[in-house]
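Data deposition worksheet. Section B asks for the primary sequence of the deposited chain exactly as it was used as input, without tags or linkers unless they were present during the calculation. Section C holds the resulting structure in token form. Section D is free text for depositor observations; keep each observation to a single sentence. Incomplete worksheets are returned to the depositor.
Section A, Depositor: J.P.
Section B:
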Amino acid sequence: MKTVSSNSESVDESLERLHKIFLKHNEHDEGDLIFYRIDYRLAEILKVTADEARAYHQIYHTKNPRTVSKAYCSNCNQIVTFVPIIYTVTENERSLLKAAEMKGRVILGDLENIMEDHKIPMFGCAECKKPIPGCGIF
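Section C:
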């Protein structure tokens, strides 16, 4: 692909480096926010317009398909869709969230099992319902 920067780094090399930086330990979750951040940084690095950077990024993803809301689940031993874990709900929300949990859209977490001063996973596996700490903790 075309070389555009002063240090002879190609567009593909720039995009590979930016993906490693922005996706860090979860290359399976390039959501829109990260996608747009990569576009912005690519435009800055290559000194091109935002539209040109977006076009380069879209071409890159024809060869390297973008995945969203996926992570490795060590329990399932595969790449899976992850969903948010909701820990505190009001009685009014409980029935609505229970229905969403049955559809695999959320996991209702149990604060009773969380020890004080321990980090709490924010997301879990949509398949087995186990937490995936690598996707975020609080």
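Section D:
The chain has two domains: 11-63, 71-135.
The two ends are 41 Å apart (CA to CA).
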